[in-house]
Structures are given as structure tokens and as C-alpha cells.
Amino acid sequence: MDDALTRCPVCGAAREADASFCEACGHDFTGLASPAPVPPGSPGARSAQAAAAGTTLETAAPAGSSGTTAVLPSASSDPHVARVESQVRQAPVRPQSAAAGDESPLDIGWTGPVSGSSAALAVDSGSDGCTECGQGHFADGYCDTCGAKQPNPRDHFAESPAEWLGGVCDIGARKQRNEDAMALLAGTQPLAHDVLVVCDGVSNSTNSDVASLAAARAAREVLDDPVPRAMGLPDAVRAAIERRLGEAVVAARAAVVENTPDPTDPTPPSCTFVAALVSEGLAVVGNVGDSRAYWLPDDPASTPVQLGADDSFAAEQIREGMPRKEAETGAHAHAITRWLGIDSPDDLTPHTASVRLDEDGWLLVCSDGLWNYCSEPADLRTLVAERTAGLGEQGRRPAALAQSLVDFANAAGGHDNITVALVRSGGTAPLASTASPAPVAPDGDIASTSAAPKPDGEVAPDGTVHD
User: Fold this and answer.
1) Would you say the C-alpha torsion 257, 352, 326, 447 has a positive or negative sign?
2) I want to staple 79 with a disulfide (CB 3.0 to 4.6 A). Which of 149, 212, 329, 441 is the partner?
């Protein structure tokens, strides 16, 4: 058979008989959007070649689910190869189209909402005016004046419910669709009652973009209710918030199950979960999967921390003593061990951690599209300080900083979808940077030039800061 029909012309990976896109590099076989060939020797090219060669990893499956075999890149001396891989838990599947009658007019390849709750899962595009010609309006997905195609509103959207809270969700530079989602909520006063939820759709599961958005919004509804503070004791309040986060996980999973059109699908919709609830200055975080939260205080004398713990193969290796950089750039770094979905593990109790926001700083919640390129808390704080200083008057605005961090991740490769949500503790007016900007390597790494600051308080293994 003609090699062009069995191999990807960009990376050389094997092509499924009825595939529309290359599983390794995302090349469009239909010819509608052909990306430029991946430069030889680049991380993307090496990853595509590894996927074409294909090694297999047997991953554990929960009781009652089918066996799983994940195609992962071969081990490589290049520490950046693994960064192009998204979460892996089951055998890859091709992108699924919406059910008949629910196709999006924007793009027949867009896997939009497919359940009866599709209206609740829509993302506000902000305006139906054409951004190309500035005169026409979009009708049935195209401009009625110049014919330009209407952008998919899921590709990039931002939320800023208050001046101290905001976030950006972006498709990234290499993905065909945005499988990340976020949902934010702000109280009437800073840090009184704020909610941040980020969910990352598992890329080798069906309709994961629908799953992530449904989960994020369902969790936000649960976390919207006021926290009971009858006794007022700090431990009691913290415990109440942790219970609320557990309820949010249950609601998020139920939303994913509700948006699972075929329960027998071997790779049903699924996503990761991380949420932060800030109540009267106390931030409590809960996560399932490998989306993360960080506390990044401005003061160099205070300790930045990752809040919570990943459910991933890399996290297991770190707990066994492997250096973080080596574990997070290994071939199996993004194999997750817990997720939300109809076939999720029985135990979905979230990892929790808490910190009191009693000094100036940033509470950051993100998907791995950001932390892939800057993982260490100290390095991430340095990056935030650099970006904050570069923004000038907008330097303490969460939405502006979130966009700047998304730009950083895209410039570093943008191999995955990117979501960044932030709460500002302290003033939102611009402040002078207290840290020298860190050099940014071409691959997006932040080169740390100073030792990590000494903590003022005790930091538990789960990231909880005890005053």
C-alpha cells in the first residue's frame, strides 16, 4: 500500500485507516489545516518518532474497567521529550465528533457538548462581531460580510469576576482542541469567599473537553455556598472546607458521568480536578490528578509551596526519592493514577492542604500546561516576579498576570492546553519586583540562581503551612 496512506507525512508515525489526525503530531490528514513539518531534532520531532516507534506501559485499572495499554515515548536522554505528552491512562482514541444533530456550526471537528445539558456547557464568546473585517457578524459559524470562520470560543477564554481574582484558559500552540476548563467565583470582599476550579480533560479519553467543563462548573456550584463558621475555631473551619471540597469532587464526577453518552466506551470522558476555596483569608486546596495549586508569597524570606500532591507516576517516583526534575521529565511522567469519570477509582478523596493568606502574594491554580515548563515553587515564584515586573501598572492584576503566564508557556512550546487562575493577596496596585528576573532557557525552564529561602513556619509533606 502507498506509504502516504499508512504513514504520517510530517512525523512518519503509523496512520490508522480512518484517522483524520495523526496521533503523534496532530497533522490533519484531510488537508484542511496542515502544520509545517516538525524540525528534525526538536522535542516535538523526537516525541513523534518515539510515538511512532511506540513502547507500551501496562497501567493499573480500577475494578470493573477494561485493561489498559498506553503508548508512551521511549526513554530518552533529552529531558524535554516527555513534556509534549499529556495525561495518559488508557489506550489512545481518535477525536470524537458530536452526536448527530448536536454538531457545532463552528467546526465539524470540534467535539462540543453532546448531552441534554449542552446549553449549560457553552462558553460565552463575548461578541458575534467579526474580528477579521470588523464590519460583519457571525451567522452559522461564518462572517456574513467577509466569510471568515468564527473562532471556537473554547480555544481561549478569560474570567475576571473581581479585581483580585482572574484566570485564562487557552488551547496552547500544538493542540487541536482545548480540553482544559476553569470556573471562578468571587465574593463581595477580597479573600472573603473566592472559588477557583481547574479541570484538565484526559487527552486520550472521549469528549474530555465536555467532561472538564462540566466538572469545573458543577464543583463551583457546590463551593459557592457559604462555609459554616458557628464555632469559629480555625481547625473546625478548615475541616468544614475540606469536607466541602470532597463534596465538590463528588459533584464534579457526577457531572462527568452525566455527560458520558456511552457507558461502555473503553475510554469514557474523564478529567483531573483541582480547586481552591478561600474563606476569610484561609485558602484550602483539594486535588485529584495532576493539576496543581501553589502559594507564592512576594517576600523572598517566605517559602513558596506546592499545595497538595499529584496522583501520578512521577509523584510516586518523587516520594521514593527521585529528584523532581528527573521524575517530571521521564517517559511516564504524565501517567496519572486517579481521575474523575465513570471508570474512576473508588477512592476519590482529594489531597488537601491549607495556607493562611496573611501576607502579599499569589494563590495560583493551574493545569500541567503551565507547570510542565516551571514546576519548582521557588522557580515559579521567580517567574511570577519577572512577569509581574514586566507588566508595569497591570502587574498586580490577576487576569493580566494569568495571560502573561499563558504567553510564557506558549513561547516555551505550548505543547498542552494551558489554564492559569490566580487570587491576589494584598494590594493589586503595581509593586517593584523584589527578585531579579531569572534567565529563561529556550525550552522554558527557569534557571534558579539563588538558594531556596528558609521557611518561617513548618511545612508539612503535603504542603500545608503551619504557623
Assistant:
1) positive
2) 329
Q: Which amino acid is at 100?
A: A
Fold designation for 156-466: Phosphatase 2c; domain 1 (3.60.40)
- Residue 201's closest CA among 148, 271, 273, 154? 271
State if pTM tops 0.70.
no
- How many other CB atoms are found less than 10 A from the CB of residue 309? 18
All residues at 6 or more sequence positions from 87 whose CB lies less than 8 Å from its CB, including other chains: 200, 202, 203, 204, 272, 289, 290, 334, 335, 336, 339, 368
Using alpha carbons, select from 217, 216, 223 the residue that is nearest to residue 242: 223
Q: What's phi and psi for 68, nearest 5 deg?
A: -130, 140
C-alpha cell at 13: 508515525
User: What ranges make up the beta strands (E) of 265-326?
Assistant: 270-271, 273-279, 282-288, 292-297, 305-307
CA dihedral 392, 395, 397, 400 (to 10 degrees): 80
Output the tens digit of pLDDT for each of the chain's 467 residues.
555 567 777 667 777 776 766 666 666 666 544 334 434 433 333 333 433 343 333 333 333 333 332 322 333 333 333 333 445 543 333 333 444 444 333 333 333 333 333 444 666 655 568 877 888 888 877 888 888 888 888 999 999 999 999 999 999 999 999 999 999 999 999 999 999 999 999 988 999 999 999 999 999 999 999 888 766 788 999 999 999 999 999 999 999 999 999 999 999 999 999 999 999 999 999 999 999 999 999 999 999 999 999 998 877 777 778 787 777 776 666 688 899 999 999 999 999 999 999 999 999 999 999 999 999 999 999 999 999 999 998 999 999 999 999 999 999 999 999 999 999 999 764 444 444 344 444 343 443 333 333 333 333 334 444 33
Residue corresponding to grid cell 521567580: 382
Which of 282, 223, 250, 270 lies closest to 350 in space, CA to CA? 250
Domain boundaries, the chain: 3-78, 156-466
* Spacing of C-alpha 21 from chain mean position: 22
